[in-house]
Write a structure and sequence with these properties.
Pfam families: Peptidase_M56 (PF05569), TonB_C (PF03544). It is built from 13 helices and 15 strands. It is α+β, with helices and mostly antiparallel strands. Helix 6 crosses helix 8 (about 230-255). The chain has helices spanning about 5-30, 40-55, 60-70, 100-135, 140-155, 195-210, 210-220, 230-255, 255-275, 290-300, 305-330, 340-345, 415-425; strands at about 75-80, 95-100, 135, 160-165, 170-175, 180-185, 285, 335, 355, 365-370, 385-395, 400-410, 425-430, 430-435, 435-450. The longest helix has about 35 residues, at about 100-135. The chain is elongated, with a radius of gyration of 31 Å.
Length: about 450
């Protein structure tokens, strides 16, 4: 089983529920921090997006590191408890095995969605680049030139350019190396100075924040979860709070809030009458479709909050969001598609598997060779004493060989891996039934101790 397939399977299964859990926590935190303004909400949603993308992958990386580490030997011992057979489909705690018939369609659907959204992203970026290449220089009146210079100066974006395009319906910002403001053909001629100032101030705020680059970054990192509807909601909230932040920056530096809201309404009416061309990654003044909410935010008188209240809201909210994300990661699992050898083992392998204790005429197998478990390297640097155990299930066949070793009660991925490696080397004198060797299922408790 390749690590890539383990990662993809584990990531998809964990993301289905874990992203929803993290997003719900992010929503609660954003409501709590609403009094602090759109900047706090924006940071909350961006952080939620990052956690939603990263957390479903953590179990896989813990699993991978457990197998990549070279463990060092330390005092260890194992004790054996014989129990009823669990059967071939016993569930592994922390590591789950899925039949290949389920894994293959899941991976095909995920790979297909990943390919679709990746191709769409590439096509969109190509279209955005062509939009910029086809843009034309624009002539501004002396008054408009002065407004443009004031906006660039106020937001420290002196290298910004303004161009026109027939393919946009309203002002949009784009450009990687140098910011470019695109306006529709005829936009300048039909704009009052106040409306022109409002539009340019808002777009220069986007340039100052490098929102075009951030938007591309969110799209790229979000490809892993592009299939998930909750991700679309997270990006929508990021876009909404981003627009409100830029509204606030514009009114703080260049224009009063009343004039700004009046201009927003006039510009919205004008843009609504134009045919809209999709520019997925260019940042426009009306991208988030929350004009009414933005106007209301502009008209709300903001009460200053004390530093004590701010930190009293921020610190508990941050801890809450991180604890929910960490809790979700702790409950997440590694999904291993069933290997062909496992399938073969389950199909035929050992004849009937007996249950020691339940089948009265079956004697227990006797351990004749064991190997001490190796203490994981990750825990060697700690000076404290250590005593812990994990439980594995296994089958001892009629020759005394060990098969199908799986974790039943996990200690941690690295300790589990060491226990499995040790148990796989055990040899037994087989269990007997009516004088004949038979296969039995066992539990084994593997103890790790450091004095």
């Amino acid at each position: 089983m390749s690590s890539l397939r383990v990662f993809m399977t584990s990531y998809v299964v964990n993301a289905i529920w874990e992203v929803t859990l993290i997003a719900a926590a992010g929503w609660m935190v954003s409501r709590l921090l609403k009094r602090l303004g759109p900047q706090a909400e924006h940071v909350t949603w961006a952080s939620t997006l990052a956690l939603a993308i990263l957390m479903p992958a953590l179990p896989f990386f813990r699993w991978l590191m457990a197998f990549l580490r070279v463990p060092d030997k330390v005092i260890g011992n194992s004790s054996i408890t014989l129990v009823a057979a669990q059967g071939g489909g016993a569930q592994v705690e922390g590591i789950y095995v899925l039949p290949a018939i389920l894994v293959l369609p899941l991976l095909l659907l995920y790979a297909g969605s990943l390919l679709y959204f990746a191709v769409r992203l590439v096509c969109s970026l190509h279209g955005t680049a062509r939009l910029l290449q086809q843009a034309s220089p624009i002539s501004l009146s002396p008054e408009q030139e002065e407004i443009w210079r004031d906006c660039k100066r106020s937001f420290s974006v002196e290298d910004a350019r303004i161009l026109s395009s027939s393919r946009v319906s309203g002002p949009v910002t784009l450009g990687f190396r140098e910011p470019v403001l695109l306006v529709p053909v005829g936009f300048v001629e039909g704009c009052t100075p106040q409306d022109f100032l409002a539009a340019l101030a808002h777009e220069c705020a986007h340039m100052k924040r490098r929102d075009f680059q951030k938007n591309i970054f969110y799209e790229v990192v979000g490809l892993l979860l592009a299939f998930h509807p909750v991700l679309w909601m997270l990006k929508s909230h990021i876009a909404q709070t981003r627009e409100m932040i830029c509204d606030g920056m514009a009114t703080e530096r260049l224009i009063d809030s009343r004039s700004y809201t009046q201009s927003l309404l006039r510009l919205a009416t004008r843009i609504a009458m134009a045919s809209r061309v999709s520019t997925l990654h260019a940042i426009g003044i009306f991208d988030a479709n929350i004009l009414e909410k933005r106007v209301m935010m502009m008209n709300i008188k903001k009460q200053p909050l004390s530093s004590v209240l701010k930190y009293g809201l921020i610190i508990p909210s941050t801890l809450f969001l991180l604890s929910i994300a960490a809790g979700g990661a702790a409950m997440a699992v590694v999904i291993e598609p069933q290997s062909s050898s496992q399938a073969a083992d389950q199909a035929q392998p050992y004849g009937q598997i007996y249950q020691v204790g339940k089948d009265k005429d079956v004697s227990a197998p006797r351990l004749i060779f064991s190997k001490d478990p190796e203490f994981p390297k990750s825990a060697l640097g700690k000076k404290d004493k250590f005593n812990g155990s994990c439980v594995v299930t296994l089958i001892v066949d009629s020759t005394g060989a060990v098969h199908d070793v799986r974790v039943k009660r996990s200690l941690s991925p690295d300790f589990d891996a060491s226990a499995i490696k040790a148990v796989q080397q055990y040899r037994f004198k087989p269990a007997m039934r009516s004088g004949e060797p038979v296969a039995v299922a066992l539990y084994m408790e593997i103890n790790f101790e450091r004095f």
